[in-house]
Amino acid sequence: MKWQKKIFLVLIVICTVSLLLHHGGHFTWNMDAFHFGCSHQSPGPKPKHTNTVFLKTHKTASTTMQNILFRFAERNNLTVALPVQACGHQFCYPRSFSSHFVHLHTLRPNLITNHMRFNKTALQRLMPNDTKYITILREPASMFESLFTYYSRHCMSFRRVPNGSLEAFLAEPSRYYRPQEIDSMYARNTLTFDLGGDKDNSIKDLAYAQNFVADVEKVFSLVMISEYFDESLILLRHLLSWDLEDILYVKLNMRTESSKKRLSPGLPEKIRAWNSIDAYLYDYFNASFWDKLSDLGLDCVAKEVQLLRQAQERLMRSCFGGKMPLPRPAAEIKNKDLRPWQPSDKVDIVGYDLPVNISREAQEHCLKYIMPEISYTRILLHSQSLQHRRSYQNRPVQKSHTLQQHIRTTLPRHSQVHRSQPAPSVGQSPASGTESKSTPKQS
């Protein structure tokens, strides 16, 4: 696939120059221009697809994707399934997803995107029949470095390592790794675990990896690739018949450069060997990702990517007083709702603050683009709870009573979501309902 990637990069450069020349050096966009990129694939406008499950994986740019979905839901008055209070801002991860973890005020959802461990059976019961399933993967070596740094204080497998050395861990991973421990999923085959698979399956068991990939491919209509985030959004746009506005974003949950560790020679190969199922998963879907781009047409995808990036720059300048934003450490952000969660004093996660000299309208429009996951989840839950109460109050008494009886018989009270259930066995299947202890965290 390397030749396709090189051709694609050349096309991006050509599109940039041609767009600037066409507009006399000044770029403006409209929807007609955006649809022109792949117009042969879109013979006419289609209704936007709204029912979507996005499996939010760890350290893959999934928080940025979640923010896109949250904003889409608000603009289109959709219901987002959100976790009960006992689960925090995740669906009691790392327990296998259950409808018991969904807040009563967010039932009958169109979208679901907060962290969970995938459970196909439970999700298919919860979501409409026409739901599209989407997830995102990242190259295992860079992803594992991010996991190791980010969860260095939360994952015992990493805490045991002398001086927090990634090299030492990879030299003898079995010396530090305990598969049954809480948070062990951050230390091996995290993508596989998030997708409901067996993170500790034998490296030599190629048949398991092949069958697991086949199961994922049957369920998920799109597997995005973190390294090609914009291209992934173009595929998403066509899958769901969305517009340019629907896929605009600001990068969220980023580490400072000083918080990143450069991988020394030989470490990427060791990481891929230790995370062999993740590596197989990524390599397979990276190849199929480029097949999807080729099917759409690399030239038209390149045009749409460029139009997206131009619109992105306009958004940034309108939100940050005509300048490109500089990410700030959390302590320097005045608005507490905009401060990203900090996993430890060794990792700096940066965020944004809006300038005071932009209009109130711009403030309201731009605020949600830069809002961290925990704050946005809390605000969405408050908003949907208010809507639920208004709707409940307006129902006839008899119907309201019937609905309440239905809820009581199908879902437990929040206090019934316990954190003391046993950890899952390492052999459970991708659709398993077996659950482990819940230790919700930001990721």
Automatic annotation (TrEMBL):
Descriptive protein name: Galactose-3-O-sulfotransferase 3
Signal sequence span is 1-27
Keyword Lipoprotein present in the record's keywords: the answer is: no
Q: Which InterPro entries match?
A: Gal-3-0_sulfotransfrase, P-loop_NTPase
Top-level taxon in the UniProt lineage: Eukaryota
Which keywords fit this entry according to its UniProt record?
A: Glycoprotein, Golgi apparatus, Membrane, Signal, Signal-anchor, Transferase, Transmembrane, Transmembrane helix
The family note in this entry says: Belongs to the galactose-3-O-sulfotransferase family.
Compositional bias of kind Polar residues? 418-443
Q: What is its main location?
A: Golgi
Cite the residue spans of the region called Disordered: 411-443
Select a single GO molecular function from the record's annotations and give it. galactosylceramide sulfotransferase activity
Kindly list the biological process annotations in GO that this record carries.
glycolipid biosynthetic process
Cellular component, GO, one term:
Golgi membrane
Decide whether keyword Membrane is in the record: yes
This protein's membrane topology, according to the annotation, is: Single-pass type II membrane protein
